């Protein structure tokens, strides 16, 4: 046996040790600070490339001591930063199994391909897209948006793969000012040029102004440009807002534009019959990006691109390579060639954790979990509204709440309020009791709480507001 290999009993023993570490990690997740800052401990990682190896148990010990002790923190009920979900432990188990299989998921008639194909169908069904919808799992929402926009670019500029965009009328992309920065990145990487990305203002509820979108399209057409793609938000990253998707779909139909929906954060909420009506129009999208690693609570990474019209992804990504071409009658042929639906050839078995999660919890289980997060956000908004020293930015559309400390009876300039709230956030995060990141909305700083966390309870949120008030008072008192 090669020295890299382990006999099955040793694999079992190490696996049991790893399972113990995982269970201990779960059991102790609320003992330490939410965010496991490495800080002064970084020196332990500053070691030379090992010339010779050491026993596996020693490596596991090092992982236990130096790595597992400093997590990002999203397993903790008081983690509210960015949109980083807490993970379903079953997903951890799934990742272990997937890694043991070490499947390469570009194509072929092996189980992983069928699992991913099924997962794509299930996600399309959750979103209300037709059964013929095609898709692919990606590393996350950024890649899911990129992949969808690549299909859109090709659909709107059929010779783009051969000719590039040189010498053609520029394609124009429209998205609201609340769109995620990955849209900007994708427009750049796809060569469409960020100058051709129109940032459309939003209304008082941070939803895209469809009237201004229509005007912008008109102006671009009159200027001889080619309006091509509209990106709608199904849960914007900053405020959790859903654009009027039905109106966007109408506009795209009328103007012959590709309608893409960035639902990386929010679209999976369609799993809930209670929340589904918020997304009317999503089912008319040409493409959707969504993230199982957000509201399906699978461990990182798993995003998904869904494209309504069969063949559009292959149009953008098919690249025959001699060594990958196989006899259509051969034993290898599977249901999908995923390397023809995205930029990657070698791909891991991300689908297993999504498949296992959907089988374990079912549509109803996920609906309840997502509804819980939305209920927690509404509870927090209510809590903030009930306190005279706090201000709520807006009613939460989904599970993001923006609020700020604004003590009654004290006249503070906006810039002072910004500073004060940043200091409150820094204090609370540095204390280790919470992890969240403030944000800027229309130029002002807000404490931004994103709840994609089935572990969060009302008392966690009450404690957050209590501590924010205490920190605010202490800062103003010069502590
Ligand atoms: C609306 C939206 N789009 C895109 C992304 C990017 O997704 P990812 O971080 O999975 O790449 C996010 C991330 O939070 C998001 O909220």
Can you offer a commentary on this structure?
This protein has about 475 residues and is of the alpha/beta class. The chain has 3 domains: about 10-30 and about 35-70; about 105-350, 3-Layer(aba) Sandwich (Aspartate Aminotransferase, domain 2); about 365-475, Aspartate Aminotransferase, domain 1, CATH 3.90.1150. About 40% of the residues lie in helices and about 10% in strands. Helix 7 (about 180-190) links the parallel strand 2 and strand 3 (about 195-200). Helix 3 runs antiparallel to helix 12 and helix 13 packs across helix 14 (about 460-475). The longest helix has about 35 residues, at about 350-385. The protein starts with 7 loop residues before the first helix and ends with a helix. The mean pLDDT is about 95. The protein binds pyridoxal-5'-phosphate. Pyridoxal-5'-phosphate (PLP) binds next to helix 5.
Question: Quick recap of the structure?
Answer:
The protein is α/β, with parallel strands linked by helices and 479 residues long. The protein has helices at 8-27, 56-67, 89-101, 111-127, 141-156, 160-163, 181-189, 210-222, 245-255, 292-295, 312-317, 351-385, 414-430, 458-476; strands spanning 134-138, 171-176, 197-200, 226-233, 258-263, 287-290, 303-307, 390-392, 400-405, 439-441, 444-450.
């Amino acid at each position: 046996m090669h020295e890299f290999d382990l006999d099955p009993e040793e694999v079992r023993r190490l696996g049991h040790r790893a399972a113990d570490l995982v269970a201990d990690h779960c059991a102790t997740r609320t003992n330490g600070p939410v965010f496991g800052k490495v800080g002064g401990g970084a020196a332990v990682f500053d070691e030379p490339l090992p010339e010779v190896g050491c026993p596996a148990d020693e490596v596991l010990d090092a992982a236990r001591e130096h790595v597992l002790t400093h997590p990002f923190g999203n397993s903790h009920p008081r983690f509210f930063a960015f949109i980083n979900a807490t993970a379903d432990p079953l997903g951890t188990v799934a990742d272990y199994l997937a890694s043991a299989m070490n499947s390469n998921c570009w194509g072929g008639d092996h189980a992983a391909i069928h699992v991913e194909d099924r997962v794509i169908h299930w996600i399309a069904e959750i979103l209300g897209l037709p059964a013929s919808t095609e898709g692919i799992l990606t590393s996350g929402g950024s890649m899911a948006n990129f992949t969808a926009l690549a299909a859109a670019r090709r659909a709107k500029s059929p010779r783009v793969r051969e000719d590039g965009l040189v010498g053609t009328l520029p394609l124009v992309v429209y998205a609201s000012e609340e769109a995620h920065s990955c849209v900007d990145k994708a427009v750049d990487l796809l060569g469409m040029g960020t100058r051709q990305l129109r940032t459309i203002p939003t209304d008082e509820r941070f939803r895209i102004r469809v009237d201004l979108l229509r005007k912008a399209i008109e102006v671009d057409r009159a200027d001889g440009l080619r309006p091509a793609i509209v990106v709608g938000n199904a849960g914007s990253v900053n405020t959790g807002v859903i654009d009027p998707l039905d109106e966007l779909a109408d506009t795209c139909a009328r103007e012959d534009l590709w309608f893409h929906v960035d639902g990386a954060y929010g679209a999976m909420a369609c799993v809930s019959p209670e929340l589904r009506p918020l997304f009317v129009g999503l089912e008319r999208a040409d493409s959707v990006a969504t993230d199982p690693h957000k509201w399906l609570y699978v461990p990182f990474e798993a995003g998904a691109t869904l494209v309504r019209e069969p063949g559009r992804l292959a149009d953008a990504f098919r690249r025959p390579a001699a060594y990958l071409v196989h006899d259509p009658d051969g034993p290898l042929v599977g249901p999908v060639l995923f390397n023809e639906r995205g930029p990657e050839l070698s791909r891991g078995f991300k689908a297993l954790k999504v498949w296992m999660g959907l089988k374990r919890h079912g549509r109803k289980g996920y609906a309840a979990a997502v509804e819980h997060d939305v209920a927690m956000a509404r509870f927090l908004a209510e809590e903030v509204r009930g306190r005279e020293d706090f201000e709520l930015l807006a009613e939460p559309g989904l599970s993001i709440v923006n609020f700020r400390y604004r003590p009654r009876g004290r006249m503070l300039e906006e810039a002072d309020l910004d500073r004060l709230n940043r200091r409150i956030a820094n204090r609370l995060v540095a204390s280790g009791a919470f992890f969240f990141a403030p944000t800027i909305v229309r130029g002002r700083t807000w404490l931004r709480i994103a709840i994609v966390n089935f572990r969060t309870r009302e008392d966690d949120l009450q404690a957050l507001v209590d501590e924010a008030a205490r920190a605010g008072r202490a800062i103003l008192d010069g502590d």
